[in-house]
Amino acid sequence: MTEFLPEGRRLAYKENTAALQSARTLMQAAVSGAILEASCTVCDAEHNMHVDLGCMKGIIPRSEGAIGIESGATRDIALISRVGKPVCFRITKIDETGSEPLAILSRKAAQEEADREYVSKLTPGDIIGARVTHLEQFGCFVDIGCGIASMIPIDAISVSRIVHPANRFSVGDDIFAVVKGRDQGHICLTHKELLGTWQQNAERFAVGETVPGIVRSIEDYGIFIELAPNLAGLAELKSGIKVGDCVCVYIKAIIPEKMKIKLIIVNCCDDGCVPLEAPYFITEGHIDRWVYSTPDAPKYIVTDFSE
């Protein structure tokens, strides 16, 4: 639903810029109940958010800054961290009692509408758009609409294991995710199911090719090298190699029935080249069940969204 985009996506829309042109167009937006977006310039000592509307100043009172602020379920850092960034809102009124008109705004009202009309209707398996807001060791936090937060745990980002979400994402990235379920009312997400099965990824490579990869782990029996976010191969141990290195690898064998790719490390890539980026294999609709494994593989990897 385009009306409930992650914050930052609406800023340049012509409908948004048109509504911010004058006091008259702002009043029209207030009457229609449109959700708008503009940049937060200051969060004052009382944690009211000041917004630059272009034609006039706006303010989001602390109590209207986000769902859960008044109850304490949402911490004030959720307001402070929006300084210098776009925020969505609905206009509640335009106060003309002072020397200059001031638009009174509510971000909470926009979030409540998004929750009621969009988020509450999401079901496990639904594919949605999101924007990365910050990264922690344990997962990637995203905005799924109007500043409503969700998280992708690190082990749900890709099949190929990473040490930190920053190995895969950057703040501000627009991504896709799959609804996994709900936890205490919050949407839980996963991501790896959109990056293709083992077979889909392996078909992008051929025996005899030399390609770039990233060293993801070093074990006693070999070195795991990521060729794509959902595909890794195993190379023999080689001195001077460390986790995170970009390496050039020769593809010695591709074995679908064992879900194995045998590699030979040719050399380190000093120019910092990265593996072929895997596109999203799915970006819309709904998934009931996703099977990563090949039919005869001894290890069965599946996500069942119908459970």
From TrEMBL:
Q: Which InterPro entries match?
A: NA-bd_OB-fold, Ribos_protein_bS1-like, S1_domain
Q: What keywords are assigned to this protein?
A: Ribonucleoprotein, Ribosomal protein
Query: Which Gene Ontology terms of cellular component type are present?
Result: ribonucleoprotein complex; ribosome
Q: Which GO terms describe its biological process?
A: translation
Q: Which Pfam families match?
A: S1 (PF00575)
Question: Domain S1 motif spans what residues?
Answer: 125-192, 208-237
Going by the entry's taxonomy, the superkingdom of the source organism is recorded as: Bacteria
Enumerate the GO terms in the molecular function aspect. mRNA binding; structural constituent of ribosome
Database matches in PROSITE patterns: S1
Q: Which PANTHER family match?
A: 30S RIBOSOMAL PROTEIN S1, SMALL RIBOSOMAL SUBUNIT PROTEIN BS1C
- What family does the Swiss-Prot or TrEMBL record give for this protein? Belongs to the bacterial ribosomal protein bS1 family.
Q: What is this protein called?
A: S1 RNA binding domain protein
**Which organism was this protein described from?**
[Eubacterium] siraeum DSM 15702
Q: What is the lineage of its organism?
A: Bacteria, Bacillati, Bacillota, Clostridia, Eubacteriales
